[in-house]
């Protein structure tokens, strides 16, 4: 079983993913970023850098994401996934194309590759997608106070466009069940105990579908990040 945690930058996806993995005794898969991603810092180097490295960055995320998914499926068990492969392609990569940071030829190549990868067994949809959302003003405030330097220094218009694309994406998302969570109701970064309300809602969504032991192991174990995933998340 896989639980996906989705939402734009600043929503607290990684914090919630860690809490859910520990609470349910599931394994944790985090995004490949920072030292493992050679394109991220270059991409945030300004407008021209975003045009130069947009395709490189998105291909890196696509490759590492599906590598991680393949290993997760091979390993088996239950997982919490910090950001989904759908967002990589349908929000971020498409957004770079729409904003002119990826050429039409680059986007066509990327889209063809993504479409083929979706046929792979590793790309089976999550059992449940937890979607974190909130007003742009709330998210921008959290980015300014909690984000990395590259996030805090990025053009605010980039985040405004990203917020709009996420809203369009989730409105049309039909690949699996979705549990929408307002970040104003659950500030798991500022108050970790707030996650208990989310835990309860997740259990209610999955009750009756899965053996209780899959969510509540007799001997709980600490969730460990997947070895193939870095300790962090993508801006």
Describe the structure.
The protein is of the alpha/beta class and 235 residues long. It has a single domain, classed as P-loop containing nucleotide triphosphate hydrolases (Rossmann fold, 3-Layer(aba) Sandwich), CATH 3.40.50.300. It contains 10 helices and 5 strands. Strands 2-3-1-4-5 form a 5-stranded parallel β-sheet, with helices on one face. It is globular. The model is unreliable at 210-235 (pLDDT under 50).
Largest sheet entry = 5 strands, parallel
Summed up, the domain count is 1
Shape, principal axes of CA atoms: globular
Question: Nearest-angstrom radius of gyration?
Answer: 17 Å
Task: Tell me the name of the CATH homologous superfamily.
Answer: P-loop containing nucleotide triphosphate hydrolases
| Assembly state | single chain
Q: Output the CATH class name.
A: Alpha Beta
In summary, what is this structure?
The chain has 235 residues and is α/β, with parallel strands linked by helices.
